[in-house]
């Protein structure tokens, strides 16, 4: 929202023949972000990157893969900036006439992209599978600190449950266990098993079977909507005759229930959901979660009853 206000005011000030200048802060206050995180721009506009202290880049990528330089794409190289530098160094990007297609960028400094330091020009809206948030999620999933070498990627699970109580959280399992969940086994729109319990320190390995599924974290009340800052595997297309199956790993860091679904069109609505550490004796159990995914209209009733 901030970005569009800046864009608008500058567009009004700038002579139209020269396009607008859109200012973007790179790494303000020592944070691994671009501010604003994306802008909407017209051909001929200039995006002016102001490099704050530290040592960042602005490097163009594709939507997928994130955090990987696009061949012949824009790149500033590393711009080391000492503390207290004033004025900040700037680099300009001239917005091309590309029919408004989205352009994606990231910071090439070690670990910055995996912490979500990505930027976009003209990203699609939030509900689009290629939205800014989807790109950022993908960057964190693929290049986050917990990501290990392919074929297995590991994700940190953010602490997301307001009811999580450290006092009742169990201690680490004596011997950490590995739990395996097959994603779409035998062509079914299901995780097998779909509900598990896992101890802190355990690892959950999702193994993707043929078709094109995801493992995407959501919340109990919105089963088919990605959780903000949650994890996602992205789409994992697997050929029908594949003999090796990609996996992603999840390390269990607390006992808060973890809810998730397949982001492929209509899979969640067909009941392709899973839970880890759902409290089966309470109202927020796996069956209720799956019911909500398949029949969102039960949502209001369920909540009405619980109030
Ligand atoms: C992100 O991960 C990919 C695949 O492992 C790697 O090639 C790339 O260099 C990483 N990007 C950054 C900025 O670390
Ligand atoms: C900036 O970061 C790059 C890549 O990590 C490194 O090679 C370079 O030495 C750094 N520059 C300074 C001045 O720290
Ligand atoms: C996987 O599904 C996504 C979303 O429907 C789609 O964009 C992508 O092209 C598919 N990939 C393959 C290889 O079918």
From TrEMBL:
Q: Where is the signal peptide?
A: 1-19
Question: InterPro entries, alphabetically?
Answer: Cupredoxin, Ser-rich/MCO-related
Q: Which UniProt keywords apply?
A: Signal
Q: Which Gene3D superfamilies match?
A: Cupredoxins - blue copper proteins
* Keyword Signal among record annotations: yes
Which domain of life does this protein belong to? Eukaryota
Family annotation (CDD domains): Cupredoxin
Task: Indicate whether 4Fe-4S appears among the record's keywords.
Answer: no
Q: Which PANTHER family match?
A: EXTRACELLULAR SERINE-RICH PROTEIN (PTHR34883:SF15), SERINE-RICH PROTEIN, PUTATIVE-RELATED-RELATED (PTHR34883)
The name on file for this protein is Cupredoxin
Which source organism does the UniProt entry give? Candolleomyces aberdarensis
């Amino acid at each position: 929202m901030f970005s569009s206000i800046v864009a608008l005011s500058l567009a009004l000030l700038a002579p139209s023949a020269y396009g607008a200048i859109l200012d973007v802060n790179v790494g303000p206050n020592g944070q691994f972000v671009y501010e604003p995180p994306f802008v909407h721009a017209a051909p001929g506009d200039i995006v002016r990157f102001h490099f704050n202290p530290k040592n960042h880049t602005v490097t163009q990528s594709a939507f997928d893969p994130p955090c990987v330089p696009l061949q012949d794409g824009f790149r500033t190289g590393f711009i080391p900036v000492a503390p207290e530098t004033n004025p900040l160094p700037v680099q300009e990007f001239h917005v091309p006439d590309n029919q408004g297609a989205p352009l994606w960028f990231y910071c090439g400094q070690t670990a910055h992209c995996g912490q979500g330091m990505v930027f976009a020009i003209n990203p699609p809206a939030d509900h689009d599978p290629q939205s800014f948030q989807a790109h950022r999620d993908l960057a964190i999933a693929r290049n986050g600190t917990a990501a290990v070498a392919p074929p297995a990627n590991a994700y940190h699970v953010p602490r997301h449950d307001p009811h999580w109580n450290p006092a009742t959280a169990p201690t680490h399992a004596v011997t950490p266990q590995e739990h395996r969940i097959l994603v779409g086994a035998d062509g079914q729109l299901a995780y097998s098993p779909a509900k598990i319990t896992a101890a802190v320190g355990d690892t959950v390995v999702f193994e993707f079977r043929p078709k094109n599924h995801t493992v995407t974290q959501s919340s109990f009340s919105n089963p088919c909507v990605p959780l903000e800052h949650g994890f996602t595997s992205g789409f994992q297309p697997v050929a029908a005759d594949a003999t090796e199956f990609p996996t992603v790993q999840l390390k269990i860091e607390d006992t808060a229930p973890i809810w998730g679904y397949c982001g492929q069109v209509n899979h969640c609505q067909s009941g392709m959901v899973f839970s880890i550490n759902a409290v089966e004796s309470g109202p927020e159990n796996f069956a209720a979660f799956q019911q909500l995914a398949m029949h969102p209209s039960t949502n209001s009733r369920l909540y009405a009853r619980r109030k």
